[in-house]
Structures are given as structure tokens and as C-alpha cells.
Design a protein that fits this description.
The protein is of the alpha+beta class. It has one domain: 3-Layer(aba) Sandwich (ECO RV Endonuclease, Chain A). It is built from 7 helices and 11 strands.
């Protein structure tokens, strides 16, 4: 396997740290992006930052490129120059994972016509009160499956007349990928902790500074 990402899954101390800290940090992200008990869209980018911070912690800031141009819709970060896409899903089902976010039906169709897997995926399956996982799905596994099942088996276009905001990888394809023998997995117990959280405290503290 050419990617350095596999090192995360072979580092026993780090694996234990991920099992312990990831649910806590994702719970913080939910609290940070909630308003009147409802989790906002901002939670996605906070979760992404938490995973990128893990890469920086493991591999060093100099090896993690975070300033990715907006013209790269799939790539969230680069590790040692190699592109990575970070995905998160909630619940047991592997449906609803976006390959690209767009409300434009024409753009969605064009994307499907030209798409071919080209970057590793780090996928976090959040499953509060139950078991989920942290997966590394190498690009080789994605390409192998794509070649086998084709565009229509791999890519789900939004239904006409709806506003689902993106093109998805099919549930069947994602299930196959997480079970592929090239994929690495850390099983995570998603338990919530009691957290005293005040969204304004940090900013009030800044105002208090001389």
C-alpha cells in the first residue's frame, strides 16, 4: 500500500487514543455547531478539522497540506502530497455519503460522466450509543470496485425536482468498500460524555484580556 495513512492503523497507542478521543471531540463539534438543540451544517467542517488535526498530530504540520483550492471539490487535505477525501456519516446505514456537493442537476450529470476515484478516503461512521468506525479506504480499492460495477452502480445522482445538494456514492458501493480487504478499520464505541459547554466563554475570555 503506497499511502502513509496505514501507519495510523498500525500505531497501537494512536488507535487507543482515537477510540477514546474521537467521540468526545465529535461531541464537542456538535455542541459548537448547535443552536436551540439543532445541529447546524457547520458541524461537517468542524469534524473535518478534527480529522485533519489528527493527521497533523501524527505526521507533522509540514507534511499536511490544508490550503486546498476550491477547484478541487473532492480533496480536503493532502498528506505527503497525496490527496485525501474526508467523509463522515451518522447511523448504521452507509447511505448519503456525498462525492460532490452541488444543487445544479447539469453539473451533477457532468460529474458522473467524468468521475473516476483518484484519492484515498478517510471515513468516520458516527453511531451514538452503539458501534461505529474510522475507516481508511485506499484509492486502489475504490478503483477496483468502480471498474467492476461501473458508473451507475457506484454513483447515485440526485432525484430530479428534489434538493439533496449533491451526488452520492451508492450505499451498496460504500458497504463493499468498507468490507474490502484493502480497507483498514478502527472500531469505535460512540458514547456521549457529560460536557459543561458554553459557546461564548472562549470569546468572552478574549474580551477580558488586556
Amino acid at each position: 500500500m503506497s499511502s502513509r495513512l496505514v501507519e495510523i492503523f498500525e500505531d497501537e497507542k494512536l488507535v487507543e487514543k482515537i477510540k477514546d478521543k474521537l467521540p468526545y471531540l465529535f461531541q464537542l463539534a456538535e455542541l459548537e455547531s448547535s443552536r436551540a438543540g439543532k445541529i447546524g451544517m457547520k458541524v461537517g467542517s468542524l469534524r473535518e478539522k478534527i480529522v485533519i488535526a489528527l493527521l497533523i498530530y501524527k505526521f507533522g504540520e509540514e507534511n499536511v497540506e490544508t490550503e486546498i483550492p476550491i477547484t478541487e471539490p473532492e480533496i480536503d487535505v493532502k498528506l505527503f502530497g497525496k490527496p485525501i477525501s474526508i467523509k463522515t456519516i451518522t447511523g448504521k446505514s452507509f447511505s448519503g455519503v456525498k462525492l460532490i456537493w452541488t444543487v445544479d442537476a447539469q453539473k451533477a450529470r457532468e460529474f458522473r460522466e467524468h468521475y473516476y476515484p483518484h484519492c484515498d478516503i478517510l471515513l468516520v461512521q458516527i453511531n451514538w450509543g452503539d458501534i461505529g468506525g474510522f475507516y481508511y479506504i485506499p484509492v486502489e480499492a475504490q478503483q477496483k470496485l468502480f471498474d467492476k460495477i461501473g458508473r451507475s452502480g457506484y454513483i447515485k445522482l440526485p432525484k430530479p425536482g428534489t434538493n439533496p445538494r449533491g451526488v452520492e456514492i451508492t450505499k451498496e458501493a460504500l458497504k463493499s468498500l468498507v468490507n474490502d480487504n484493502l480497507t483498514r478499520k478502527i472500531e469505535i464505541k460512540w458514547q456521549k460524555r457529560k460536557i459543561e459547554f458554553n459557546p461564548y466563554k472562549r470569546w468572552v475570555d478574549y474580551w477580558r484580556e488586556n
